[in-house]
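Annex B.
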Amino acid sequence: MQTIDVKRLADEQSRGEIDLIDVRMPTEFRGVHAECARNVPLDSLNPDQVMASRKSSADRPLYVICQSGARSAQACKKFRDAGFDNIVDVEGGTTAWERAGLPVVRGKKAFPLMRQVQLTAGFLTVLGVVLAYLVHPNFVGLSAFIGAGLMFAGATGFCPMANAIAKMPWNQCQGSSCST
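Inner membrane protein YgaP: predicted structure tokens.
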């Protein structure tokens, strides 16, 4: 996989227009993003559509950024699997871009998805224990189910609960509210 650090990418930008997509959730993108980035969330990423909608020449690289590098690597793999090779992962993501003092756009901050998952998992675990104690012992199965889900997410990197929470209305933004 081709990679580039944020300083080199900024140098590329100073020499001309770059095509940079940010694959984070719209609410994360709205909170802070590289000034030159456009949002194409990973969960709805269609490599063929992205490549067809590019403003720049198809032979120029497409740069992919996320928060720290994990989701952009997944997006780059999707592009490679679809037959596109000139895809470059931005090392360190938006965190590195911001730390380097490069231009960002700041907007409304969102409650981070992983904290939402932690709160939900914790609540459901405690609820299962309380219901098992007060109502029926079989409710302990709720806590066991949540624990198994957390183990699955930790082992595979795929979290069904995070995917479900990401689709909740409070994690979506509509129209102009997505850009700032």
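The longest strand covers residues 19-22. Residues 10 and 27 are 24 Å apart (CA to CA). Further annotation is deferred to the next reporting cycle.
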